[in-house]
Amino acid sequence: MDMEQTKTDRIFQILKARILTGELAEGDRLMSLREACRQYKVSKNSMVTVYDRLVAHGLVASRHGSGFYVAHQPTTTSEPANLREASDIVSLLHAQLDRAYTVLVGDGRPPESWLLNSVPAVTLHTGEGGYGAPHGLMLLRECIAASQIAAGIEVSPAQIVTTFGANHALDLVIRRFTRPGDTVLVDDPGYYPLFAKLRLAEVNFVGVPRTPRGPDPDALQALAETHRAQVFFTQSLAQNPTGCSIDLPTAHAILQVADRRDMLVIDDDPFIDLPGVSGTRLAQLDLFDRVIQIGTYSKTLSPSLRSGFVIARADIASSLAELKMILAVNSSSHTERAIAGIIRSRRYQKLSNQMSKRLAFERDEGMKRLHALGLSPAIPPDGGLYGWVELPDHISDLEIARQAAAEGIFLAPGTLFCAHDGQSHTPAMRVNWSRINDSRFFSFLRSIR
Question: How confident is the model at residue 86 (pLDDT cuts 50, 70, 90)?
């Protein structure tokens, strides 16, 4: 795809989003071709292509001699409010998947170049061409159990259920342990796709403030009592979006609250296997009594594999495996054998070590460049992929993200990671250390200060 085509795709997605969100309302006139060319810095032919695509999608109508106007968008009563609200939350994820940007500082994944060729071809053995066991491929579950044992946590394959990635695992846990109208607790700031899933399930969620040492235990205790919450979603290591981990005293305090309140703790952690990440995993202290661990290979091998896992007490694992069987029959034995082969050959360990070193280098360099602009991370990262950078108070992180999008730069505004809509917070953005050191991003930052 040439650069001009990439620009038209990006501008199309920007205008489409503005129309679908109502920022451009029915009947509004789009800027003239001349104005649009000047704003988006493209040729007239490119802008004509964008407007023609909007017309083709029914988003815009052309009025001869007058210009282009936002068309009527039909509404449907069949879409429930919870689906609409969930879709609004995952607008950031939609932007990542559309890939209409050239600078991806706000993206949630490492660059493809870091992960290419990580997975070799694989041939299934005789008897593995069917659906397989609900818990998942035994060979991979044995590998996962071995890695936990090496970390000092005794786990058996019967406690492990493989999934189509961490998000599938979250879906299973939400379906199994919540009901519409329940209230659960989440990190704040926290993982925004989780917020969307809870909205879709019509489950209320309340944010527990995240500190440099992890979730605030006193706030957790108070909120659990007030809302009678039975489930708390958190992340032990290099949390998304702050990059901070839970320290040992905080981990003890969280588990004490969970014990007093008879509460399950869901630890959604994509960096279990990544070296160089400091902090304390809750499962190291709890040994999967109240903790349910979710892991994934999306960040360390490839997002396209769609493979993850749940580790829990054997009875909980069995119930999740049954639910998985009802909803999806089973996960992919083909993918799971490929991953098991990588782990057993020690290639996975080598890839993880390489990623850790590359991340450390890019993170150090990125922090130096941010510091030079007076924008050091608000919470020192403990490793992993993410950092939380606070912006000056007079700046709107949503507006900055919109300005960056017009220049082909994808940012992740902090507002979307906040657990409460409209809650007052310091403007911030989540940065991806593997993608931060792009001169175009830092040029943009200098232009907005």
Answer: very low
Query: Is 310:163 a contact under the CB 8 Å cutoff?
Result: yes
Give the integer Cα–Cα distance in Å for 400 and 309.
Answer: 36
- Quick check: helix, strand or coil at residue 386? strand
Q: Under DSSP, is residue 184 helix (H, G, I), strand (E, B) or coil?
A: strand
What DSSP character marks residue 26?
T
Do the Cβ atoms of 381 and 387 come closer than 8 Å?
Answer: yes
Amino acid at 115: L
Q: Which residue has the higher pLDDT, 286 or 41?
A: 286
Whole-angstrom CA distances from 283 to 249, 287, 313 are 14, 5, 11
Q: What is the distance between the alpha carbons of residues 285 and 149, in angstroms, rounded to a whole number?
A: 14
Average pLDDT over residues 222-233: 97
Question: What is the Cα–Cα distance from 358 to 384, expressed in whole angstroms?
Answer: 11
By the 8 A CB rule, do 189 and 293 touch? no
Q: Chain-centre distance of CA 9, in angstroms?
A: 23
Asked if 243 and 381 count as a contact pair (C-beta separation under 8 A), the reply is: yes
Question: Both tokens of residue 83?
Answer: 């689906």
More confident: 102 or 86: 102
Highest mean pLDDT among 99-108, 128-137, 251-260, 432-441: 251-260
Say which DSSP state 32 is in.
P
Whether 298 contacts 93, CB under 8 Å: no
CA-nearest of 307, 249, 274 to 381 is 274
Asked if 365 contacts 351 with a C-beta cutoff of 8 angstroms, the reply is no
163 exposure class (CB count in 10 Å sphere: 0-12, 13-18, 19+): buried
- Contact predicate 262/229, CB 8 Å: no
Distance (Å, rounded) from C-alpha 137 to C-alpha 193?
Answer: 27
Among 181-190, 204-213, 376-385, the range scoring the smallest mean pLDDT is 376-385
At position 44, the amino acid (one-letter code) is K
Instruction: Report residue 289's pLDDT band, with 50, 70 and 90 as the boundaries.
Output: very high
Using pLDDT thresholds of 50, 70 and 90, give the confidence band for residue 127. Answer: low
